Amino acid sequence: MSENLxxxxxRYLEHLRFSLGRSDHTVTNYAVDLAQFCEFLLQxxxxxxxxxxxxxxxxxxxxxxxxxxxxxxAARKLSAVRSWFAFLxxxxxVASNAAASVRSxxxxxxxxxxxxxxxxxxxxxxxxxxxxxxxxxxxxxxxxGCGLRVAELVALDWEDVQLEERWIRVRGKGDKxxxxxxxxIARDTLLELPLPPSGERGGPLFPGExxxxxxxxxxxxxxxxxxxxxxxxxxxxxxLRHSFATHMLEGGASLRVLQELLGHESLVxxxxxxxxxxxxxxxxxxxxxxxxxxxxxHV
Length: 299
What we know:
Blueprint: H1 3-19, H2 24-43, H3 54-66, H4 71-90, H5 117-126, H6 133-146, H7 150-154, E1 161-162, E2 167-171, E3 177-181, H8 184-191, H9 216-229, H10 237-250, H11 255-262, H12 267-270, H13 272-288
Antiparallel strand pairs: 1-2, 2-3
Helix pairs in contact: 1-2, 2-4, 3-4, 5-6, 6-8, 6-10, 10-13
């Protein structure tokens, strides 16, 4: 790899690791994708980031997809290139983002997975075990009961929680705040959390190591461990958010209400949950109705 491309790429990876605090896994993925892009550029005789145009980015996508890469992989690599060029532009190394105008490969729409009400109840009620039972139960109750993103959950402080009124102030994407109601069960699990040494509720709602906040990785472990205990596979914190949204719609909540609860900027994002409830309805009909034709018949 040319010295110019290598230096610029290394600067960006250091920015990801030290300035943005990205995990080693994330930085490694960016390194692999950008190294592949740089190798392609060298094959085209390009050695300076200032020479790269949108045509070169499009050619790179055509090349890797022609080699057999899936559209999802190509879209991920394009995202990495866009982020790199945004960094280069902010630092004055390039005049414009060569990847900004390049369209991402059209990906097949996937319905978000949602657990059944019964499986969700088993996960939340029977999954938590051990010394951190109360903490894990509260984590699961808030993820599902309030539809929180995992990053929103770990950012909560006690001052964000109104126990009597049963409201939570949530800081979502773009640091935008919204108020989300919580059920009595979720409130009760918070009341069961052990008090800090001061004897008063304050600081992080879910403390982590050395007085900090619980990490996103720990929350993922809490969810996957609880799922494993009750015999469920492939369950993540985001699956609980999907389950919250799906069960709200099935219970009669409007899309506008759900949009506010989830903190979506656009109603279009919320509408994807209509597809999953319609698909679940079709399967239930096919399996249960005497003339439904069975689960495999098209309706």
